[in-house]
């Protein structure tokens, strides 16, 4: 590799650096936006995980029922029931984590309402709205 001339802060001008080294100066974005982006991703991921475990649980329930009807070996049916219970517990765990993340993020968004015109803030509100039906006991009161 041939060295290239790069002007960087703190180095003499025309300092020779290997081409593989790249220095860039980033203007710091509002750290609140970064937090909103991260928390939006957390809510989105937990919602997807919960949906995935619910589907897995439904499939496993069908398998267990099918194996019982077919008269499969008792040990094999019990193992499949254990897998089913694990899937159900993961749904519960995802709901619990989603509820905590949802409440924490809602507090953040409420405190940062001055960013309400920001695209990431608006996207976060939509993700929160999409997650509401997946919260435990939502709309059952």
From TrEMBL:
Task: Name a biological process GO annotation.
Answer: post-chaperonin tubulin folding pathway
Relate the assembly described in the record.
Supercomplex made of cofactors A to E. Cofactors A and D function by capturing and stabilizing tubulin in a quasi-native conformation. Cofactor E binds to the cofactor D-tubulin complex; interaction with cofactor C then causes the release of tubulin polypeptides that are committed to the native state.
What's its job? Tubulin-folding protein; involved in the early step of the tubulin folding pathway.
Keyword Electron transport included in the entry's annotation: no
Protein name as it appears in the record: Tubulin-specific chaperone A
The cellular location(s) given in this protein's UniProt record come to: Cytoplasm, Cytoskeleton
**InterPro entries to which the protein is assigned, alphabetical:** TBCA, TBCA_sf
Name any GO cellular component annotation.
Answer: cytosol
A Pfam family cross-referenced in the UniProt record is TBCA
One GO MF term: beta-tubulin binding
- Please provide the record's keywords in A-Z order: Chaperone, Cytoplasm, Cytoskeleton, Microtubule
Q: Which Gene3D superfamilies match?
A: 1.20.58.90
Tell me where it mainly resides.
cytoplasm
The entry sums up its family as follows:
Belongs to the TBCA family.
Organism ancestry: Eukaryota, Metazoa, Ecdysozoa, Arthropoda, Hexapoda
């Amino acid at each position: 590799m041939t060295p290239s001339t790069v002007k960087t802060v703190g180095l003499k001008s025309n300092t020779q650096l290997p081409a593989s080294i790249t220095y860039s100066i980033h203007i710091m974005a509002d750290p609140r936006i970064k937090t909103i982006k991260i928390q939006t991703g957390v809510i989105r991921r937990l919602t997807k995980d919960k949906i995935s475990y619910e589907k897995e649980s439904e499939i496993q329930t069908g398998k267990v029922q099918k194996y019982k009807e077919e008269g499969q070996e008792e040990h094999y049916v019990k193992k499949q029931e254990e897998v089913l219970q694990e899937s159900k517990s993961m749904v519960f765990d995802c709901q619990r984590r989603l509820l905590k993340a949802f409440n924490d993020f809602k507090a953040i968004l409420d405190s940062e309402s001055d960013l309400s015109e920001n695209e990431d803030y608006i996207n976060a509100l939509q993700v929160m709205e999409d997650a509401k039906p997946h919260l435990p006991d939502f709309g059952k009161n």
